[in-house]
Design goal:
Number of helices: 10
Structural class: alpha+beta
């Protein structure tokens, strides 16, 4: 049973007049319990889970008495909407305190607020000024990509997102990106990135790629790479945001933006795996989502012309790409995990350059014609694409899908349709293996060669190798 931290009498004020009904409020480390007094109370009790609370506001209620103080609690509870879909809904709870002098009332309610915020955040990244009830306000660095998705990210931030950070008393510096690699350049050149509580991307998955590649490009990357990163989905592909909701069992689809913001407002973090990616013609990069070659990479890149459609662009172009099916020749080497797919805790020795032989180990080699080779370190690579259903954020595994030719168009269609729930991993005509690392050597010809994508970023088809970096990143997650 949760320990009672504070208990006192308030007036519960469900109406705008602020008079309220007398109640006893009991604060535990996990909830706020209200017991309404009176002979026939309309509401006998009410429970607010602190897990759902994002912030508190203390105000003076001058129209009731000269010394009343009101505690307003913001929380987001799970409920069903008109379509009977589960979603998070914003609720305000007003409690008026009117027992002592104004100064004493403010001090008492301030302590309640301090405890509620502290327990609601799980005490992570929450600091209070010594000997006072005032918060040391966390500060985030927020990047907004104005071209993400349908191009509404800036408008959405100002109309819907900004107020949520204000109600949670989290300050921020805002940067609207103006070009490709703008975000990466800012982070790479920032004198003291650790002055921020975390970095947030309001975009698709592209800005996450820039954030981490800006961090690893710094001289102090090993010191700063664990700074918490958050994502608020506004792009065509929102794989990481969807994965976090999936792993938290959160109702994502009705309001993806709200569910993702709540991950950040709680200021809790979790370690997650990154991927070190080397190619022939580009410097080494860091992947947070996926590496693709073959039909899925073709769909990702060639559908860019339909960006105005948002995520449906992938479905539309997939139909065309299946009708005009291509095959590609390559040699693939991969290093499997243990037979049970258990996570790998030990650090691997960095792989040699692509022009050097692979190190000793139980490498598996596959050659021939392929339809697709694709990998990810997280469950979802898009809102409705559950690529690796068994994936965890910190399992130390790259989940690798290998589709060799020949495959019929009907089979390929079934594979893509089955990715909404991850059923594709059981098809006998494809391989889905947990690996620690892999090296792909595509055969480059004068004919068409598939794109290579890293987190959706386009590279020319070329040799590539990837190696998991277990728990090198940190993500905001409830």
């Amino acid at each position: 049973m949760a320990r009672v931290v504070s208990s006192d009498e308030f007036y519960y004020c469900p109406n705008k007049d602020g008079t309220g009904v007398r109640c006893t409020a009991s604060l535990t480390t996990s909830s706020l319990e209200l017991k309404i007094h009176g002979e026939k109370p309309r509401i006998k009790s009410r429970t607010v889970l602190l897990e759902d609370v994002t912030g508190c506001l203390v105000t003076r209620q001058g129209d009731i008495s000269g010394h009343s103080v009101t505690l307003t609690i913001y929380y987001y509870t799970v409920s069903q909407n008109s379509c009977r879909n589960y979603c998070r809904k914003r609720v305000l709870l007003h409690l008026r305190y009117d027992k002592l002098s104004l100064a004493e009332n403010q001090d008492t309610v301030g302590k309640w607020r301090m405890n509620i915020v502290s327990f609601a955040r799980g005490n992570q990244l929450t600091i209070f000024h010594n000997d006072s009830n005032s918060l040391v306000v966390p500060k985030l660095l927020i990047f907004v990509n104005p071209k993400s998705g349908k191009g509404n990210a800036v408008k959405t931030f100002n109309s819907k997102i900004r107020s949520l950070f204000e109600e949670a008393e989290i300050s921020f510096d805002l940067i609207v990106t103006n070009s490709s690699d703008h975000c990466k350049q800012v982070i790479q050149e920032l004198p003291n990135v650790k002055k921020y509580t975390g970095i947030v991307a309001v975009s698709g998955d592209g800005l996450l790629y820039e954030i981490y590649n800006g961090l690893i490009a710094r001289n102090d990357w090993q010191y700063v790479c664990d700074i918490p990163v958050g994502v608020i989905p506004q792009g065509s592909g929102n794989g990481l945001a969807r994965s976090l909701a999936h792993l938290n069992n959160e109702p994502y689809l009705v309001n993806p933006m709200l569910v993702s913001i709540l991950n950040i407002l709680k200021l809790r973090t979790k370690e997650f795996d990154l991927c070190h990616v080397s190619t022939v013609s580009h410097p080494a990069v860091c992947s947070v989502l996926s590496i693709g070659w073959g039909i899925m990479a073709d769909i990702d890149i060639e559908s860019e012309r339909f960006r105005f459609m948002g995520e449906p662009r992938f479905t539309v172009y997939a139909v065309w790409r299946i009708l005009k099916l291509r095959t590609y020749s390559a040699t693939l080497h991969y290093l499997p995990t243990s037979d049970d797919g258990a996570s790998c805790d030990e650090e691997m020795i960095p792989l040699p350059p692509l022009n050097k032989p692979l190190p000793p180990g139980k490498w598996v080699t596959v050659t021939g014609k392929f339809i697709s080779i694709y990998s990810s370190t997280i469950p979802y690579i898009g809102t409705d694409i559950c690529f690796a259903p068994k994936s965890k954020l910190d399992d130390g595994i790259i989940w690798l899908m290998i589709v060799k030719a020949p495959v019929t168009k009907a089979q390929l269609t079934k594979m893509l349709l089955s990715m909404d729930d991850g059923a594709h991993v059981d098809f006998p005509w494809l391989q889905f293996v947990p690996v620690k690392a892999f090296r792909l050597i595509p055969e480059i010809t004068d004919d068409y060669n598939s794109y290579l994508t890293v987190d959706g970023e386009h590279l020319k088809s070329q040799p590539v190798q990837a190696q998991v970096m277990p728990r090198k990143g940190r993500i905001f997650m409830r």
